[in-house]
Amino acid sequence: MDYRDSAEEAEYRAGLRAWLEENVQSGYEHAASQQERAAIARTWHRKLYEGGYIGQSWPVEWGGKGLSPAMDAILNEETGNFNAPPLPGTAGYIGRALQMYGTDPQRTRFLPATISGDIQWCQGFSEPSAGSDLAALRTRAVRDGDEYIVNGHKMWTSGGQYADWCLLLARTDPDVPKHKGITAFLVDMKTPGITVSPIVLADGSPETSEVFWEDVRVPADQRLGDEGEGWRIAMTTVSYERGPSDIGFISTYRKSLAELEEAAAKKGLTSSAEVRARLARAYVLGEVLRLNVLQQLSLRISGRPPGEEGSVSKQLWTHCEQELQHLALDLFGAEAVTGQRPDYLHRYFMSRPISVYGGSSQIQKNIIAQRVLGMPRK
Amino acid sequence: MDYRDSAEEAEYRAGLRAWLEENVQSGYEHAASQQERAAIARTWHRKLYEGGYIGQSWPVEWGGKGLSPAMDAILNEETGNFNAPPLPGTAGYIGRALQMYGTDPQRTRFLPATISGDIQWCQGFSEPSAGSDLAALRTRAVRDGDEYIVNGHKMWTSGGQYADWCLLLARTDPDVPKHKGITAFLVDMKTPGITVSPIVLADGSPETSEVFWEDVRVPADQRLGDEGEGWRIAMTTVSYERGPSDIGFISTYRKSLAELEEAAAKKGLTSSAEVRARLARAYVLGEVLRLNVLQQLSLRISGRPPGEEGSVSKQLWTHCEQELQHLALDLFGAEAVTGQRPDYLHRYFMSRPISVYGGSSQIQKNIIAQRVLGMPRK
Amino acid sequence: MYALLNEEQLALKEAVDSLATTVGVANPIDLESREPVQGWDRLRQMGLLDLRRRDQGSPAAGGVEVMIVAQSLAAGLVPLPFVPTAVLATELLSLAGASESCLDEAVGTGSKYGLLLRPDLTALSFAADWPDSLVWGGADTRFVLALDSSGDDVRLVRYELSAPLSNNLSVDLTQGLWLTPTATNEVVGDPISGAQLQAWTALALSTIGADLVGIMRYALQGAIAYSRDRVAYGQPIGTFQAIQHLAAETHVTIEAAYGAVCYAAWCVDELDPDDALQAARTAKAYCAAVARTATENVMQIYGGIGQTWEHPAHFYTRRALLGTQLFGDESTQLAEIARTRLGGI
Amino acid sequence: MYALLNEEQLALKEAVDSLATTVGVANPIDLESREPVQGWDRLRQMGLLDLRRRDQGSPAAGGVEVMIVAQSLAAGLVPLPFVPTAVLATELLSLAGASESCLDEAVGTGSKYGLLLRPDLTALSFAADWPDSLVWGGADTRFVLALDSSGDDVRLVRYELSAPLSNNLSVDLTQGLWLTPTATNEVVGDPISGAQLQAWTALALSTIGADLVGIMRYALQGAIAYSRDRVAYGQPIGTFQAIQHLAAETHVTIEAAYGAVCYAAWCVDELDPDDALQAARTAKAYCAAVARTATENVMQIYGGIGQTWEHPAHFYTRRALLGTQLFGDESTQLAEIARTRLGGI
User: Where is each Acyl-CoA oxidase/dehydrogenase middle domain found (chains A, B) (predicted)?
Assistant: First the structure.
């Protein structure tokens, strides 16, 4: 057990900091529109690529550097510390899917462009009637010669409006058990028949999108993996969504807490023992999450694939952020409800879906009980 | 809607207060042993009987006065206010069972003695492997001529050591669905083959008992209701356990809170805004429970039998008492763990089983979801 | 003792429930199509605007009736200022013995009277603080009531706005909170006593509590209905124990809040102002403590769809957030309750 | 960066886990049959008593090893004063540079050294407060360590008891807290600096945190095993989502507490005392916040049987109650953390 950087890690961190000092992209946080944010993110992706910071933990043969997952965590942490835009997470996990399940031509075609940021990906998984129960998805892909014809309706396709390509899950065989009839595809978002429409969240900001698929023709060589292998591909992909990248959340959290402490002090609230205790508790929860994530990361470093214990981090993350936003409302409730602090209201509403997306809190508890604690299923 | 006593209620209350002024039995709370407490309770039962306060809401034909359930609530409240020993609850609900399901000879034999306190009852329902799932009970009663032979093991038989008679549930038919094979019996606790042994609770105090039944011969005319009717009898009985009698809890709660406020003030804690808020919250929870119970009581007054909404009161009661004891430990934790305040430790441990007995909190939530809110079963 | 609605009160509830379905909001699009003046007229036709006018010194209807109406209108997300205008402004004018014509105006065509609130929403504002205060009322507010304590007595002050309100700042899409525009003011009626203000605050707290109970109850009903239809893993999500228990826990807090609000509402006209205020603070403390969680639980049961603008779930959350703050959140109420039970610090 | 136990540390854990099953307590009856001197000998044979003795100025083992041992011994409900005697008394003697013979005695036959705690258990007590303080240690305690600040420096004081301890007041049936008997005292070793005391407090907090994690984890394991066997409504209760979620929620808090305790334990010997103390307070704050609830949840899963004296569930609850208080509960830690982050009031 050693929480310090190893020599290698320290060297990497120093190099990264020097690079960030020169190259960090600003303006993301205060961008006027989602479109502007997407443009900044794309530029930032390219810069990171030029700096050698995209796909750094991928194998060398696929354009990576084979670095330890620890370096990904440091990258997350330091870009957070430097107030950089978020790291392009989709590149990371869709790259994994391509490496593990792609054909050689697919890898050659997509991996370089994914690393460089020339292709921005979105994820076409969830549907109106397939959320927590993702395997119930209904979008159909029917083979027609050298193509598949896709019809369906996807929800919660983050960045759908700005993505170039989509990793799509569709049902190719309705006659087998639901997990076995799903296939993954790589689809150009400019293909005719695809319509993207924004989903506006409860606080009024357009944050994600729904995508309608109408007779969309997808060449068969853009199928990822075999027919029926889609579920396994999706599960692998999703597992790489969690884990060390949470560290990106942790630096955001630290900043939010520091801002809240400052705002509370300015309002004269930090003379109240109750407020002090609640702010200190928010600090404790953040630390507890950080230290749990470090343990998860250590498992990854020691070669274990991301597992169900990630559900524990997800629960802690949810609790952490939702509690922080509750605290902000409790301290600045009147300001928040009278339009003086729209930022608190925005963050509050943004904190609510954390217990829904990426597996709801209820699903996470099922996973912990049954797969981590080994409790019996009915 | 009117929270004031009606003219009738006010008159009853005034008479009761005058009677209590003269007759209230003291010493229960600080009795040296459980045995002494049982003796005091028996004397108190007799006094109440002489005052006309036992079975007052029973029909006149069964020795009652046909008073409104509101009077039972007032009785509970005022005896609580006068620091009297608890009211003999078993007499009330076992009396109901006798009235509703007893034969005429049974009623004649048992009702007067139950009212007068000559018979103290206990309840032989739960078993080691039949707690929440009471209908899974295994104690067998096998017909043998004019008798039944009972074998089994009952748990959580409160007052088993001091009771004269027992309302017993036993399985008479193992070959029908579990709810249908249960029969109720009235059993003299002096019958050979019955052994009572104390159950010591987590804080070290003997609070209840387990009862072993070994070839206990019960005359067939002591069967209550028909064979197989035991489950229905038990459910009716249990439903009368809740409800207005909770008001007895409410006066106890008020006293506990007042004592805690005083102790906190003495220790100088009431200058802390946090402690003040927590004490005030405890007051709010107590009021909220009281007002909910009054609504439940009003349903009873308007003639509705006790229903599933009682589960809401049970949840509030549990929350109220467990939170109060948490607060006591949070304020006086060091005193409690170093033997300076054994009373807080005792009350804390006594507060834990509230979420287990009389239907665990999990069972109550099932009832609320399925029977009150009408949510679907699988 | 009878802690439930009587026949008449049940009939009132049923009538207002039914009205609320026609003038209330079911989704964001309704907000644009609802015509406030017409809705207000519907309330007047049912006599709901006159509840707190005095007839030979007594209010036309008690706190309990006000509670019933506020609860049902909130449940239906009725975007009309029933609470600030028809209940609280009318009550203030009645307490000050304002002229009948003034009262007629308050409940006339359009909701013309608003209240001046402190920027932290914890109390009525004083005239001197006009520029920093907020107006709680409908878009057609023409007069705003505030207090003035510059003399020996506390007096009611009426502002007449020189232009319509603009700049609605409210988080709640069905209730308005506005920046103060330019206005002229005059004293109205007689001095208001401390006891009268206590009683008025008790009415305010219990009515806002009723509003919160209304939205919580109706929001949960919707989520339960949804849980019967929405299928996951081959069965309605309402069959899962996790969803059942979340709904049950929420129901427990709502029923508890309802009991406390009933008592507080009854106390308004039946007990001394300080006892009524204690009951009202108790109810408001509890409602404020549970309302946000209740509406969050509802959003959770709805899952993803409950997080979107197009779904009405957030309407309830927003109204819960505002109601929690109006006249003080849980911690404000607890501090006051502690003062009465434990003395000052 | 590697936040998990390495091979050696895993081996140590396994060895102590195994020891704990033989010297620990599985039910109340064991308490009478356990022979403390023999148990203590077993710890010594495994070298667990010397962890904090110094070898050329460095402790024989780091905070992480202490954490591992404390956690496993607590999990096994080992009724021996490992924490106060083998860890904290030894550490105090080492910090003060006490003589080797004194240290030999501390870890010799029987657990001879106890600590003097303030009556509220939040800190070591000062000699002047002897009569009102409590002794934390085993029944065979002969020497009690306290501090003295009557001179210019803080000094370590050793009391020699004139009679064996009696009057165990502890709620925890596996750890002793005793009234102070008559005793004579003398100063031991060199003055102790503020930084040394900070580091010592960090060790105390992280070790008590480890103790709490140990009992929580083991208590939950037991309840889960029970839930597999216990049948209600025709199926193991562990199949019910309500029970699964209760266990899952508890597991989350235990894993979270474990992560915080690991870091705090590592910091003890690796960071500056003030940073180590902040990490330790963080871990203790979290452990204290969740330990009671975790053990209550365990009692709840056990149902009726978990409420009885004969069942060991209450052992965990009792140890959680004591551990929560030792060196300050959550609110004590939060107040200190707030001081470092927000400044004084």
Answer: 122-215
Using DSSP bridges, classify how beta strands A147-154 and A182-188 pair: parallel, antiparallel or unpaired: unpaired
DSSP, residue by residue, C140-156: T--EEEEEE-SSSSEEE
Residues 6+ apart with CB under 8 A from A182: A135, A137, A169, A170, A171, A172, A228, A230, A231, A234
Domain that holds residue C283: 196-341
Tell whether C166 lies on the interface with A, counting CB pairs under 8 A: no
Our measurement of the distance from residue A77's CA atom to the centroid of its chain's CA atoms, rounded to an integer in Å, reads: 15
Query: What stretches of A95-252 adopt beta strand conformation (E)?
Result: 121-124, 140-144, 147-154, 165-171, 182-188, 194-200, 206-219, 223-224
Q: Known catalytic residue: B207?
A: no
Chain B's closest residue to A277, CA to CA, is B274
pLDDT digits (tens, 9 = 90+) for A189-232: 999 999 999 999 998 888 899 999 999 999 999 999 999 999 99
Q: How many domains does chain C have?
A: 1
Angle ∠(B353,B354,B357) on CA atoms, nearest 5: 75
Mutate to test the interface with B, among D172, D174, D308 (most CBs of B within 10 A): D308
Q: Which of A274, A278, A330 to mutate to test the interface with B (most CBs of B within 10 A)?
A: A274
Contact state of D314 with B349 under an 8 Å Cβ cutoff: yes
Q: Which residues of B touch A277 (CB under 8 A)?
A: 274
Residue-wise pLDDT tens digits, A39-95: 999 999 999 999 999 999 899 998 899 999 899 889 998 998 898 998 887 888 889
What does the alpha-carbon distance between residue C104 and residue C49 come to, in Å, rounded to a whole number?
10
Q: ipTM of this model?
A: 0.96
* Residue A193 CB burial class (10 angstroms; 0-12, 13-18, ≥19): middle
**C 236-265 → B contacts, CB under 8 A:** 236, 238-239, 241, 243-245, 247-249, 251-252, 255-260, 262-263
Contact B201 D308 (CB under 8 A): yes
Residue C130 in tokens = 């006009």
Which of C236, C244, C342 is opposite residue B270, by nearest beta carbon?
C342
C322 inside domain: yes
For D172, the closest chain B residue by CA position comes to: B337
DSSP letters along A9-25, please? Answer: HHHHHHHHHHHHHHH--
Distance of alpha carbon D314 from alpha carbon B201, whole angstroms? 9
User: What is the least distance, in Å, from the CA of D235 to any CA of chain C?
Assistant: 15
Please check whether residue A185 is in contact with residue A222, taking contact to mean a CB–CB distance below 8 angstroms.
yes
Q: What is the pLDDT of residue B301?
A: 87
Predicted TM-score (pTM) of this structure: 0.96
Mean pLDDT of C156-163: 96
Give the residue-averaged pLDDT of B136-165: 96
> Chain C: nearest CA to B338, how far in angstroms?
27
Kindly state the average pLDDT of the residues C107-116: 90
Q: Which positions ≥6 away from C165 have C-beta within 8 Å?
A: C114, C135, C137, C139, C141, C176, C178, C181
Structure tokens at C154: 């506390």
Residue D312 lies in a domain: yes
C315: CATH = 1.20.140.10
* Cα–Cα distance measured from residue A332 to residue B212, given in angstroms and rounded to the nearest whole number: 61
Name the C residues in 101-160 with CB < 8 Å from any B CB: none
Distance from CA of B318 to the nearest CA of C (A): 12
Taking alpha carbons only, the member of D177, D244, B25, A194 closest to residue C242 is D244
Question: Is residue C140 one of the residues assigned to a domain?
Answer: no
What distance in Å separates the CA atoms of residue D149 and residue D151, rounded to the nearest whole number? 5
Token digits for B289?
Answer: 């429970």
Q: How confident is the model at residue B243 (pLDDT cuts 50, 70, 90)?
A: low
D158 lies in a domain? no
pLDDT at position B247: 63
